[in-house]
Design goal:
By secondary structure, this protein is mainly β. It contains one helix and eight strands. A hairpin with a 3-residue loop joins strand 2 and strand 3. It starts with a helix and ends with a strand.
């Protein structure tokens, strides 16, 4: 298991280095690290890929992990400014697999993204997880994470 994790981490690092060397390649992949995530929800480490990318809109698919929770997500992100730092919102759906079972949920987030250069950004905001089969169907969380685009 440990070797598999090292292999995956090394592969991600090497692919990031290859993409970083080619400035013409669009930056469609995102790795985020921090307390929860606007795209992958309940995750500490997340990877997303922008399937469709426009100046203010992104359609994404991704995966994330938070110890004993694995999430797979897809959704839409809309930025309120075409470039630079901006407020944004995301709307998505997630499949969650955890030790206690699995579930499908929706998530909505509103946040602010502060960019540092073309690749790095700091994101903070609020995330609302919406469940459809429980009494307390909306659960809000804050999030703060560091994002790297490649």
């Amino acid at each position: 298991m440990r070797m598999r994790f090292i292999f995956i981490a090394l592969s991600l690092f090497l692919s990031a280095m290859v993409y970083a060397g080619n400035p013409e390649t669009p930056r469609k992949s995102n790795i985020s690290l921090g307390f929860l995530d606007d795209r992958t929800g309940l995750s500490f480490v997340g990877f997303t890929y922008n399937v469709i990318q426009k100046p203010q809109d992104e359609i994404y698919a991704g995966v994330g992990s938070l110890l004993a929770i694995f999430t797979a997500s897809a959704g839409w992100k809309h930025r309120y400014a075409p470039s630079g730092s901006s407020f944004y919102h995301t709307i998505g759906i997630q499949a969650i697999a955890a030790m206690g079972g699995d579930d499908m949920i929706a998530n909505v987030s509103l946040g602010y993204e502060k960019r540092f250069g073309e690749r790095w950004s700091l994101r903070l905001g609020g995330l609302a997880i919406i469940t459809f089969d429980r009494y307390d169907s909306v659960v809000p969380f804050p999030y703060l994470n560091l994002n790297y685009r490649f």
